[in-house]
Specification:
CATH topology: Rossmann fold
CATH architecture: 3-Layer(aba) Sandwich
CATH superfamily: Hypothetical protein MTH538
Largest sheet: 5 strands, parallel
Number of strands: 5
CATH class: Alpha Beta
Structural class: alpha/beta
Radius of gyration: 14 Å
Helix content: 25-40%
Order of helices and strands: EHEHEHEHEH
């Protein structure tokens, strides 16, 4: 019987979906850690979102059951309007804001200032660091 299952929303840029896929693989390999991924991967977009507002609402619905929002914090995130919107949803759209953990992509020294400014914690590309932060911030 698994322990707690952490509901996660992984905010990422579809143009850098390889980072998302590597992060999911990293989390799946973590011992004694179980999670459900509520993010919107490139190969499974939200269907029926006919406008930006509809997509915003759909993302909010995906994020609602999540304990934590992980944001891939590469510099490219600064230029992604949807990553900024997902941060806004996490911080402003719920009675209790969703904690944001910024994950520095492997090999990156610099990270997005927008992501860093809004993160509750910034962690490196390390399984133990990421899982520990999720456990700390999940409520």
């Amino acid at each position: 019987m698994p322990g707690k299952i952490y509901n996660l929303f992984l905010s990422h840029s579809w143009s850098h979906s390889d980072h998302y896929e590597r992060l999911v693989a990293l989390l799946r390999e973590a011992r004694y850690f179980h999670f459900k991924d509520y993010s919107v991967p490139r190969d499974d977009p939200i269907h029926g979102a006919s406008s930006s507002r509809a997509l915003y609402k759909a993302i909010k619905k995906h994020m609602a059951p999540c304990h934590v929002v992980l944001v891939l914090a590469g510099v490219y995130a600064t230029y992604s309007s949807w990553i900024r919107r997902e941060i806004r949803i996490a911080k402003l759209e719920f009675a209790r804001p969703k904690p944001i953990i910024a994950v520095r992509p492997r090999g990156n020294e610099k990270i997005s200032r927008i992501v860093a400014r809004n993160a509750d914690e910034v962690v490196g590309w390390n399984t133990e660091s990421i899982v520990s932060a999720i456990r700390r911030w999940a409520q």
